[in-house]
Description:
Layout: H1 8-19, E1 25-32, E2 35-43, E3 59-60, H2 65-79, E4 100-105, E5 108-112, H3 120-124, H4 137-146, H5 176-188, H6 192-201, H7 215-219, E6 224-227, E7 233-237, E8 254-255, H8 257-268, E9 272-273, E10 276-277, H9 281-287, E11 300-301, E12 312-313, E13 318-320, E14 325-327, E15 340-344, E16 348-353, E17 358-363, H10 375-389
Antiparallel strand pairs: 1-2, 1-17, 3-8, 4-5, 6-7, 9-10, 11-12, 13-14, 14-15, 15-16, 16-17
Helix pairs in contact: 1-10, 2-5, 2-6
Amino acid sequence: MGQQIDGGRIDTVLAQAVEGGAVPHVVAIAADRDGVVYEGAAGVRVAGGNDPVTAATQFRIMSMTKMVVTAAALQQVESGALDLDAPVEQYCPDFGDLQVLDGFDGDTPRLRPPASRATVKQLVTHTSGLTYWFWNADLVKYEAVTGLPNVVPGRLEALKAPLVADPGTRFEYGINTDWLGRVVEAVTGRGLDVVVKEGITGPLRMDDTMFLLDDARRENAVTVHVPGEDGGWTSAGELLNQQPEWWAGGHGLYSTPRDYIRFERALLRGGELDGERILGQATVDAAFTNQIGDLDVPAEIPTADPPITDTLSVGPGYKWGYGLLLNSADVPGRRRAGTGAWAGLFNTHFFIDRTTGICASIYTNSLPFITRDQAWKMYGDFEEALYASL
């Protein structure tokens, strides 16, 4: 265990978030290089029930899956099996069929070939031109007029979604890591579930992190919650396909706060935890280094699907490493410059501050994502309380 901190202020943040209706439930956890320094929770697994959430409760971590799968890809790079600069279609020939959506003539999509071939690195850095519907109105319209599903229902057809920009021309957050998972499968000749288990969750003893839960773990999982008609929260049940057609490298994992903090600690420690090394120090350093050059993560990405997500407003000065959002300046009273972070669509969030030597994550399962006065505010309140307690 790490040096324990006085978590009273953090406990208050969590309790107030649930009591005030900002989230249906919440678990938070923080650690240093030596172990967990804080655990706390408030609320119940399912609205209307009486089973409290804990740091051992199962959550859908959605896009927090991305860094795990990115690490699996980086392991293949370290072994020499994967070339980040190679075109994606070298490993997945069907990627070469994708075209760029260049607007519409009425309801007819205008498609053209991309100006260059997207590389594996561009998948890792979200600069391939792929996007998500909830932050791109053109893709919302494309899916509506063509009937193409988004990736959440778990149908392989979703990977036929077009690019919305030429590779390398802008940061566009999207289904890149789903494709990266397919690349990993092509390189290894194994399912992504096996690669992740053998390369990451197994060595790190993350026994509760997996793409599909067994019956016992399902009984220990929260459900996804949405705003109810009475102003409170109501359970929407299970939103992820339990028989998916592919392992979704962008959003498919379930985990527990206690499990995922072990992955965070391994990155905090330069790729090693409890004698098990999952990545080399130089690879981890690269993950925490700007990998998009002069491109920027947009200061604001407007929502294109308000029931799913609010507008993302990270502010200026953010870059992307390998699987991580990086802030280029200190955030007063909070994370230091160079911190790596990301989140999940059902309102989970993690960050790894190598300067301060702290990593942390916070979990609920609810929609919409990052609502300004609810989940987004809670993230910030938790982080401020944590740093004030160090």
